[in-house]
Each structure stands twice: as C-alpha cells, then as structure tokens.
Amino acid sequence: MKNFRYFNPVCIYFGKGVLSRLGKEVSKLGKKALFVYGMGSIKRTGLYDRVVEQLKEAGVEFVEHGGVKPNPVLSHTREGVEKAKKENVDVILAVGGGSVIDEAKAIAAGAKADCDVWDFFEFKAIVKDALPIVTVLTISGTGSEMNAGLVITNEEKKAKFGFRAEPLYPKVSFLDPTLTFTVPPDQTAYGAVDAFTHVSEVYCNCDVNHDLPKGIMESIMKTIVKWAPVAVKEPENYEARAELMWASSLALCGITWCGVGDLTLPAHMIEHSLSALYDVAHGAGLAIVTPGWMKYMREARKEQLEAFAKGVFGVEGIDEGIESFERWLKELNCPTRLSDIGVKSSDIPEIAENAYQLSVAWGMSDFYTVEVIKEILNLCA
Amino acid sequence: MKNFRYFNPVCIYFGKGVLSRLGKEVSKLGKKALFVYGMGSIKRTGLYDRVVEQLKEAGVEFVEHGGVKPNPVLSHTREGVEKAKKENVDVILAVGGGSVIDEAKAIAAGAKADCDVWDFFEFKAIVKDALPIVTVLTISGTGSEMNAGLVITNEEKKAKFGFRAEPLYPKVSFLDPTLTFTVPPDQTAYGAVDAFTHVSEVYCNCDVNHDLPKGIMESIMKTIVKWAPVAVKEPENYEARAELMWASSLALCGITWCGVGDLTLPAHMIEHSLSALYDVAHGAGLAIVTPGWMKYMREARKEQLEAFAKGVFGVEGIDEGIESFERWLKELNCPTRLSDIGVKSSDIPEIAENAYQLSVAWGMSDFYTVEVIKEILNLCA
Predict the structure, then answer these.
(1) Across the A/B interface, how many CB contacts are shorter than 8 Å?
(2) A positions 244-273 inside 8 Å of B (CB)
(3) CATH 1.10.10.10 assigned to A183-378
(4) I need a surface site. Which of B31, B86, B138, B288 has the fewest CB within 10 A?
C-alpha cells in the first residue's frame, strides 16, 4: 500500500425523515443563513417550504440566493459572495445537487476572503477560512456533499475549473433518498455515471494491487452498476435511491484512493471542457469521454483495465470490460459518442485546447498534451 | 437501507515514515503533552527515542505515563488523570496498541471532568469535553485509533466496561505499518481476530441485504482473512502489515454499519468477561467465543450466516462457513475452545453472571440473559 493522509469530518444524516434535524443543526452553526438553491425545483416539490419551516422553528434568519445553474457560473457565485458579506450571514445552507453545493462552497470561501473568489480556482490564493456549510442533497452524483472540492464555470473565460480546500468540507450533510424520487431519469443516470467514474478513474489510474482499497472501490462501482438502472426505471424505489446516494457520497469522499495513489481524473478533466463549451450535462459528457479514455489507455493501463472488467462487470478481458461498461451506459440512455450530442470531429481541436488549460492547472500536462487529448477525443467521436 | 448518522473526524497519516510529522501535529494541539505508553516495548524498539526526538524538535514539553497494561486498568487510568490535571497538560499522546489508546482516551476525558472517570463507564456521567488526543499505533486490531470508544477494566469490581463519546475521537492518528513488524505472531493473530470480529459481528447481527455496506464489510473481512496468516508467518511483510492495519482501523470506524443497523457486539460482550476473569488476550477470547455464538445463532441469524459463509470464505452453508472460520483461527494458532485456555465447564456460570452485567449496561439483556450466555459458552467448551 502507498502512503496516504485521510481526513473527512463531514457529519452525515442519512435516511427518510432526517430533515427534521435540519433547523437544529443549522442553528448550532449560526443565527443567519444564506439559503442557496437552484432553478426552483425545490419550490415545486415542497422542499423549499420544509426547509423554511425548519429554519423558522429553529429561529434562524435567512437570506435567499436561488437560481444556481446546473453548471454553476462565476457571475452568480460573485453575487452570492456579495450577498453573504453584505448581509453578514454566518452559515451557508445549500439545498440542491452538486452544482448548488459547489456554488455554496465557493461563496463560503469568498465570504471570508479579501480577494476575488476566482483567484482560488487559478491557485493565486488559498482558502484559509470559510463560513460553515450545511447541505441538503437532492440529486446523487457529484459527491460534493461529502468532500471539500468544487467546480465553477467562468463564463467570460469559458473555463470550468475546480479545486479543493479543507475548510470547505460541509459541517453537516442531510441525505434523504426520498428527496431524489423526483429526479428525472436522465439526471438520475448522469448522476450515477458521475459517481461511477469518480471511482473507475481512480481504479484505472492507480496501483490496483491492494486488496482493501480495491475491494471498497469495486463494492461502490458494483452497487452503482446494479442500482442505477433500477432508479431510472423506478424513480420511487427507496433501496435503489438509497444505495445510489450513499455510493455517490463515498465515491469521492477520499476513502477510495487511500493506499493506491492520488486522486487522478483525466476523463473528468476532458469532460469539463465539453460541458464548458457545449450544453451537455457533466454525467452525459463523462459517458462519452470515459470509454474513449479507456480505449486510449488499453496498453498503458492494461492491468487496471483487466481488473476493472473482472472486478466490476465479471467479464474477462479489456475489450469485454469496456463493452460491458458501454452497454450499461446505453441501458441508462446515456450518449456514448460525441456525435450523439451533435459534436463534430472538426470541433475536437477546440475542445482539446480548452481541456489542456485544465491539464496544466491540475498538473497533468506532462502526459495530457493537446495531442493526446485530441487522440482520446477522436476515440469518442 | 436503514437510517444512520456517520461522523468520523480522525485525521489519519498512513505509511512508512509518517512519524516525521508527529512533533508538528502534536505542537498544533498544545505545548505540554502527557506521553502515554505501555510496558516498555517501545523502549526496546527505539520508538520511544523517536517520539521524544519529535517532541523535543517541535518544542513540546512532556510528562510520561508509562506502564499501561494489555487490559488497561482503572487504577492506572486514575493515576494518569491525576497526573494530567496536576501537570496541566494540554494534549494526550498515546503510543502503543489499543490498550494504550483506550487508557489515553479515559485520561483525556477524566482530565476535563470533575467526577471520577469510572462514572463515564457506568453511564452516571457523560463526556462533554476532553483533552485532544494524538495516537501512534503499534499493534493493529482494536481500531481505537480511528474511533471514539474505549474499554477499561475495573479491577476491584472485576468489570471490563466500555463506552464511546465523540470528544474522544483522536485528532490525529499515525499508522506506520513498519511499527508493527515487531509484534509477535500471537499478538498479530489476536489483533487480526479482534478486527475481523468487529466486522463479522455487525455483519451477522444486522440487515445484511444492502449491497454497499455488505460489500465494504466483506472487503474488510476478506482482506484480514488473506493477510493475517501472512503477517503471522512473515512479520516484516509490509503489504501484509499495511493491509491489516488499514483494515483494522476501518473495521470499527463506523463506516461498516452505515445502513444496516446499529453496532452490536454480543461475542465481544461475552469475551470481555472472559478476559476480565482470566489471563487471556481479548483476541484469543474472541476466537473462542465468536464461533460458539455463531453456532447458537444458526437459526436466528440464518440468512446472515449463509451470506457470511459465501461472502467471506466462498463456501456454501452455515456449518461450512463456521468451519472455515475455525480453520482460519487454527491456522493463526488461536485457541478455539474454552478448554484450550484451561477454563472448565464448571467455570461457565461465573463467566455468564459477569457477562450479564455488561449485557445490562449495553442494553442487550432482553435477549442475552444469563441462561442464553451460558448456552453460548457451553458451545465454546
């Protein structure tokens, strides 16, 4: 096993009805909250009212910051930072999916900083402090509810950048699987693919010869493979929603790569450019890029891809493994080729140039040059 | 999946050489430490000198509290509390196995309390605050380095009691597998059995029909089954020591029972009396009690024991599973019968009476009556 540091102080309340503790937990952290949410689905489902009731009962004042976009943008984040500063809030409450939680994290950092919040994404400044964050998760997938990472899109620069900082671990995250019953089939699938690739990318890039982390990673991936199609077909299947929710949280909480190497996400890196440049969901983009990445790496990651085939899909051989993976993606109605989302081969150079920026920012540019990224994208065409 | 709360804020530094950060981490938590250790093996191995060097380099003053016994006792714990109070230390540094860490936790709690430290064990008082704890682990097994629980023996009352309290999570734990190279074969085996049963007891007592927690539990158990015999035979096999160390920490860190029910440890409960009354190592006692407990529960825990046979040992059927488990225990040179440690059938009533006290304290006495405990022990004879 390789050396590692593991630290994850997020307190998780999981299960049906856990929201009844929300007010109490928020009130432990402050008297005035910035209530961050998305495009209004929480108003349609009644969750908004339940949250407001919890805050009122606990005597927590709040200011609203709704309208977070599915790929959260810098301009709206900056507005949130301004609001948090002006209103002097002392806790950030994020109610939504990974996008809402990510923007909430950026606001929590920005509210305690003198610099512009984008400086953190370009590694010009470091997050030393942040407002405490509480999350109520409504879509399984990103794992943001149980980690210290975030991704924001700078619209002007057309850059989708991310970073992590320990002050950004949520203090408490509420995971009630019933809150995901209303997530539509496509978003359910994309979330599952996102979570799956958080593990498969680590598995396929690291030293897979260590039983315990290998076993944990395979358990998470097999759980997602089994239950995602069920949740897509039966949106109110509690067990499916619950297994997916916990698997997604564990997938990026840090436990998977303990002992096998560092978190490495090359397919994510390339996908970020796809969804920065085109109107495509992150999970859909991953369904396209990840199999292509695997094909490109079939020699360089031979051992890992063979283990992946056997350990996750129970088949022998790299090609059989990738085929099983693609069959599963299609079962989930995910696009698996760039052409499925209307991206042409002639668009590839621009995507590759964009992705290379992130390759540099993430310190992966020694291997992931523009040329290599182009070749990978060609395998996704 | 069942509802759960998960929270584990311990920061783990894992791997060869991580001790080079010890001084720095301790100094973040205080200027004066109580340095708790056991019967002196750390002086023979040179670890004592390395720890002292780290503390001196970081400018941390320290007071020593050596002599913690393998089953740590209340009288010595009380001395530690007195010392911590008198010397006004602000951090507890535990260097040793689970016993040392457990006593360190009791001291950390006692040093901040007005009541007698034993009151916590009898649930007459609740730990609201504690001195921060740093641990350096030298024996894999109890998992104390990554949880908030502890067990202490009250010699006068012949009671081995335990409890958990969140202020007792270590702040930082250093897990260097090379520090366990010198652990003798028997202690290596007993530690592995302890860790294994932390998972198998949960697995066999809970609702095992949930893929993700089931998969995680099986991964931990299979890792221990594979690597414990290797570590016993090849004490300096790094991979074996590393896999065992991380498996032992995860085994009782709380992640295993997320979604399947509460932590339930009936075999541990009965074993505590065995090692309170006789000079037997905890892991050796578990190797005797756990298969007996499984035999007693073969009907009541049919589904779980069938899954255990298949999921951990790859065999079909309850009896085959228990036999495989016993074969593994014998391969580790563990005793598997009370007679192996010189306990006679006529001693069983006294052990059962003693265990019943803990059954009451742990809220398990509805099922685990004196009669039931006797019957289980008869199956261990």
Answers:
(1) 124
(2) 246-247, 250, 255, 258-259
(3) no
(4) B86
